[in-house]
Amino acid sequence: MINVGLTFNENHHLHDSKLNGFPCPENPSRLKGILDYLESSDLVDGERCCFYSSEPASLKDILRVHDVRYIDHLKACTKDSALSPGNDVYVCPSSLDVALQALGCVLNSGDLVARGKCTHSFALVRPPGHHAASEASSGFCLFNNSGILARYLQKTYGLERIAIFNIDAHASDGTYSVFEDDPDVLCISVHQDQSTLYPHKGFIRDIGVRPALGLCINMEMPPEASNPEYGIFYDEIVEKVLEKFNPQLVILECGFDAYHKEPLTRLNLTINGYYRIIFKLASKWNVVSLLEGGYHDDLGLLTSVVIRALLGMDNVKDDVDLIDLLASRHAGTRKDFDKNLSNLKMRLESYWGPWNHI
Ligand SMILES: [Zn+2]
Predict the structure, then answer these.
(1) pLDDT at 323
(2) 238 Cβ partners below 8 Å, 6+ apart?
(3) For residue 97, what are the contacts with CB-CB under 8 A and spacing of at least 6?
(4) What separation in Å is there between the alpha carbon of 199 and the centre of ligand 1?
(5) What spacing in Å lies between the alpha carbon of 245 and ligand 1's midpoint?
(6) Rounded CA gap, 278 and 254, in Å?
(7) Diameter of the chain by CA atoms?
């Protein structure tokens, strides 16, 4: 039987920019909305889908990825509001405790799957992590949750092949920087064209460095890309590369800002788009999903869609008329996508090709 374990950091509301006197899209209402939605649905039935409580992570866990001076700087920032933690990041007095609790949930989600207690898991945590590099925070991220989890799984369970797959609309630049030269960790990120969106890193040409050349994959989606383009990218690149790499576990950086209602980005995935990617992924691999971005009102709905896909259930009805949604998009979107996909295949040909047997 497929079962899914959920974790969430109960103290997340103590990380809130309003405590510093200004608003931010990355705020407690995101996770509150998700938890409220799940509570009102019958998905978390205590049998196939359960919440698990988690202990906070330790500094030792963080030090597998982050520099001690960086952690000290963040600590100092929590005590002195005149210090800056980084670009587009805030901290408040309890932020480190919140981040440690979030990381504890992330590691526990990894344990649940690595020990075989759950088939898949989903850590519903904030702050997000995929922009955080070893010595720098940015983009609402303090610590690199997926990187710390991958190092933990290597150390604790001896995993030799881990894949990290980012579907957040923003490039997973922090994760890339941690693993760009690590041949044991495959990083795939599909995100909006980086000439059009923060963090302006993660271009198609960025494929890792020796001895991990070809093991970092960055696909740039043109603005307005939607379910069809994501479907082609998944089928032609992700599935093939994962089959060849054969990971023992997949960490999904699950951002909901590639959604058509997202105000901060220009992608057009619908709930069917998310569902299909995750259903296909979870049908072949054990998935530990980590919440990343997403700053609109449908985070609860999308979380439930991810859980349904992980459980192998049917999706709820997608109310979006895709033809309608795509009718207004720029005529060049599909052409730009085809060009980007050809470019990506060419750059990865010697590592993962040939591509024509798909
Ligand atoms: Zn994002």
Answers:
(1) 86
(2) 165, 188, 190, 281
(3) 11, 14, 56
(4) 9
(5) 26
(6) 10
(7) 58
Other residues' Cβ atoms within 10 Å of the Cβ of residue 69: 9
Supply the CATH classification number for the domain 4-352.
3.40.800.20
Ligand 1 centroid from CA 107, angstroms: 21
Residue 135 contacts by C-beta under 8 Å, 6 or more apart in sequence? 66, 67, 69, 70
pLDDT at 9: 96
Cβ atoms 301, 37 nearer than 8 A:
yes
Give the pLDDT confidence score for residue 111 in this predicted structure: 98
Amino acid found at 179? F
- E strand or H helix that includes residue 188: strand 185-192
How many whole angstroms from 128 Cα to the centroid of ligand 1?
Answer: 9
Looking at residue 356, its pLDDT comes to 67
CA pair distance 51, 315, nearest whole angstrom: 21
In whole angstroms, give the CA distance from residue 288 to residue 168.
15
Helix (H) or strand (E) holding 228: helix 227-233
How far away, in angstroms, is 264 Cα from ligand 1 center? 8
Query: According to the model, what pLDDT value does residue 1 have?
Result: 86
Ranges of beta strands (E only) in 76-235 are 86-87, 120-124, 137-138, 162-166, 185-192, 216-221
- pLDDT for the residue numbered 358: 44
172 Cα to the center of ligand 1, angstroms: 9
Query: Which chain residues have CB less than 5 Å from ligand 1, an ion?
Result: 168, 170, 255, 257, 293
pTM above 0.85, yes or no: yes
Instruction: Collect all residues with Cβ–Cβ distance below 8 Å to 323 and sequence separation of at least 6.
Output: none
Q: Which helix (H) or strand (E) holds 337?
A: helix 333-352
Are the CB atoms for 89 and 137 separated by under 8 Å? yes
10-residue stretch averages of pLDDT, the chain, 358 residues long: 96 94 95 98 95 97 97 94 88 96 98 98 98 94 98 98 98 98 98 96 97 98 97 97 98 98 97 98 98 98 98 94 85 94 97 77
